[in-house]
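Thread: "does anyone have the structure for this chain?"

Original post by V.I.:
We have the sequence but no experimental structure in hand. Need at least a predicted one for the grant figures.
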Amino acid sequence: MIRFGEFELDAERHFLRRGGEELHVEPKVFRVIDYLVRNRERLVTKEELLDKVWEETYVSESALTRVIRDARRVLDDSSTSPRWIRTLYGKGFRFIGEIAEGPAPAVSSDSRPTIAVLPFADLSEARDQGFFCEGLADEIINALTKLERLSVLSRKSSFEARQEPQKLGVDKVLDGSVRKAGDRLRVTVHLVDVATRRNLWSERYDRTANDLFAIQEDIAEQTASSLLGVLGEHEHGLLRRTPHAQLSAWEFYLRGRQLAYQEIRRSLEAARQMYARAVEIEPSFALAFSGMADALADLYLYHVRDEQYRAGCAEASRRAIALDPGLAEAHKSRAQSLVLEGKFDEAAEEFETAIALDPRSFDAHVYYGRLLWTHGRGEAAVQHLERAAAIRPDDYAAPMMLVQIYYALGRESDRHNAALRTKTLTAKRLELRPDDVRALCMNAEAQYVLGEKTGAMGQIDRAYAIDPHDVCTLYNSACVFSLDGELERALDAIEGAVRGGYTYREWLTSDPDLVALREHPRFQALMAELPELGEGER
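Reply from O.Q.:
Generated one for you, tokens below.
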């Protein structure tokens, strides 16, 4: 943590605060400020900044001029009377402020208040509003996650432990119920201290169904205020960014999102249809277009390289941005679409825009980190994946990717620590869902990296016993077999994954766990059959 004046800069967790309040900073602006601060003892030339911040991407000096201008705006600085960044005309820039270094203040993930939002109980007469109840909880999770001062459990962890919240390891739990009848809506909510079971705050809302969005925002604000005390103006603004839509369109959107979480092909196809119904009702519903683009991208990447999916993703993502240029999800979806088209530099720009709009977007950091890794930018990938891990400390996806990337970078100590994190998180997941084959396989690889081969192979066997045809089981078991030198067994599994619909060639050729297979004729023949992104079907 570096402090200068009223500012605090933490490069590892990628945030800049002013007076304790996190600032929205475009990634390139953040990297320029960070680089100048870390090299404050000397002049930094324009050429050096362009090389270090934009790396292999060519941009003109005007791009740097804009970023320096934005950096000064963020720091409330002046080019004529600089406090922080001085321009040496014709030469470069230098950070001139006094700094103090030290550990981060008490906002780290292990000292912030922790909360789980459980799915609301459906008390409607027909008990047919499960998707609506989950959607309400999901929106509150998304809103609270935007606050740096809170640690919010992911949807997956919270929803799986709805019957046993004491297993979640959080301080507070938010739960409630929904009764929906016609256009009337009754929502009851309780914030409970897990240790004492004391009710900290409760409320009942009797409104029309069209007041749903106001109810969501009020619950998020009241919950945050109960946990954090007085909220800053910026924090209030983050919690009031609920997208509004006609209720019928919103309900189809929630159905689509609930289906998309299942990730299997038939559910993604159904999700696409739900999003299509939503935008048919409300053609200006940017978030539904974004959801549609995401479902199509997943179908294309992980199930079948159908050109209709890629074209549909491109169209939906463009519509989302046109309708709401300030929607982070739209830019993340557009980035994914550009990845499918093989336009990686443009995709990177869209990811950076998404992160500038929502610095705590877990998906944007994970997907951007994955893109950076597949294009040879390992250290940059690590930054985004570590940031994702800090945003959702209970999610094992980012730590598992870090296990692989640290291995390739030769950072053995960091790999070991990431493996420990993955083992702990997947073990917690398996307590709640012993049949989760993805968690079993990730736990297996973490155990293998930690030298626990017997335990690792036991978890692989359990995954195969549950679903021997699951693409995740096949792919991730192949990683463990490859690390263990069982190349033919690894190749059998990889071929099975590809036959099952896994077509992400770029990850197959970048995954450090599969290095031992790269020169094998069977692996090369398999890669020859798979199209590269942007090529279409072979």
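V.I.: this helps a lot. The radius of gyration is 24 Å.
O.Q.: and Residues 293 and 313 are 4 Å apart (CA to CA).
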